């Protein structure tokens, strides 16, 4: 951590060049001696990336940013706030603190937070930034989180861990047994020292396979932001052995779409199939990731078009956690039927269909955009069909 970065003139330079072309800045040369120009450029780029992802940090003076990898891997403020709403109590330890965004939000819900970070430079950066953010109830410890947990030898209300998804060669991994630390190995230690444990994992992780690796799972939260799944949160509770509740959330600008179901009830949930009716429903990405294909049909009283299509329909309009459409027309999938519609521009989605969107556009010469929504899918009689819809 080079404290010269925090000099007033350097900070003013960073702030005034947030939208500048950094390559041009390097060619011109930077007017500061004793500071590596690349370090200043790194600060400019990191602050720019934080404008939407970390607005609190972006708006706070004298924030020091770490390298690109640390800023990319950190939670957004939106997902950190969601995690913080799940915890409470007197003390929480974050075993893999990183840039400290999660710890910052945990500090608003828990009396005392310990932030463990094995990298000395990053730990100093986080401690400095917490001072700038006026956070006084977080203790930054520059040590391996697992070793700190053992050394402290005390009880916590919560343990939080976000295992590193990079191997020794800096390649991306996502299986829990490939991440560092390996939570499968240490889950017994976590539950020894905390009543509750929260583990953040990659959205790519297979839920069914991972449930075979981790015990005491009480809840799994599938968290999406603007219909993109960002993370899976595994809530473990000491001595818990009941059904796993899966909670899906799609955080949008205006609202949150939520849907909850029990993992072991999904396989036995009864589903009805039908031809397309008046309204079409497409589940959001969190529900699709959670695999709630039967539960969403049974619980919300909507019927499926096909076992593998994951599109739903109803005669009357309902509130649904996903996109909703009026079905204007249904035609068979062939060039003659489609040409009669005279559609030259539309939004295209495929579900359980052999052709890709790009191939369909090429075949039917349809441009992207407009107010028409076309769903190419398969009905309950295994016929390929096209649904012509308008968005609600």
From TrEMBL:
One of its GO terms (molecular function) is methyltransferase activity. SUPFAM superfamilies: S-adenosyl-L-methionine-dependent methyltransferases. It holds the Pfam family PG_1098_Fer. Residues 322-391 form the THUMP-like domain. GO terms for biological process: methylation. InterPro entries: PG_1098_Fer, SAM-dependent_MTases_sf, Thump-like. Keywords: Methyltransferase, Transferase. Residues 279-321 form the PG-1098 ferredoxin-like domain. It comes from the Bacteria. This is Class I SAM-dependent methyltransferase.
């Amino acid at each position: 951590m080079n404290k010269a970065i925090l000099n007033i003139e350097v900070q003013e330079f960073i702030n005034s060049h947030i939208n500048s072309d950094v390559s041009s800045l390097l060619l011109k040369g930077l007017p500061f001696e004793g500071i590596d120009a690349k370090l200043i450029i790194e600060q400019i780029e990191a602050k720019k990336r934080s404008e939407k992802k970390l607005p609190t940090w972006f708006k706070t003076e004298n924030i020091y940013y770490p390298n690109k990898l640390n800023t990319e891997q950190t939670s957004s403020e939106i997902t950190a706030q969601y995690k913080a709403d799940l915890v409470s109590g007197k003390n929480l330890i974050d075993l893999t603190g990183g840039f400290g965004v999660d710890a910052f939000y945990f500090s608003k819900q828990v009396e005392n937070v310990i932030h463990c970070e094995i990298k000395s430079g990053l730990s100093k950066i986080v401690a400095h930034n917490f001072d700038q953010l006026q956070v006084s109830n977080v203790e930054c410890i520059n040590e391996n989180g697992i070793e700190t947990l053992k050394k402290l030898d005390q009880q916590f209300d919560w343990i939080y861990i976000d295992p590193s998804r990079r191997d020794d060669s800096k390649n991306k991994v996502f299986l829990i047994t490939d991440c560092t630390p390996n939570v499968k190995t240490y889950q017994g230690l976590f539950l020894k020292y905390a009543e509750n444990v929260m583990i953040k994992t990659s959205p790519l992780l297979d839920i069914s396979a991972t449930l075979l690796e981790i015990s005491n799972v009480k809840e799994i939260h599938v968290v999406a932001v603007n219909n993109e799944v960002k993370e899976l949160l595994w809530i473990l509770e000491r001595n818990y052995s009941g059904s796993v509740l899966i909670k899906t959330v799609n955080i949008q600008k205006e609202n949150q779409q939520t849907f909850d179901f029990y993992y072991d009830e999904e396989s036995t949930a009864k589903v009805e199939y039908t031809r397309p009716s008046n309204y079409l429903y497409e589940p959001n990405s969190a529900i699709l990731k959670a695999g709630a294909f039967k539960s969403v049909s049974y619980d919300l009283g909507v019927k499926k078009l096909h076992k593998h299509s994951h599109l739903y329909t109803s005669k009357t309009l309902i509130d649904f956690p996903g996109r909703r459409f009026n079905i204007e027309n249904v035609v068979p999938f062939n060039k003659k039927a489609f040409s009669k519609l005279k559609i030259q521009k539309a939004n295209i989605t495929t579900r359980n269909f052999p052709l890709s969107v790009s191939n369909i556009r090429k075949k039917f010469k349809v441009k992207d955009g407009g107010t028409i929504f076309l769903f190419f899918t398969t009905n309950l009689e295994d016929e390929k069909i096209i649904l012509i819809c308008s968005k609600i």
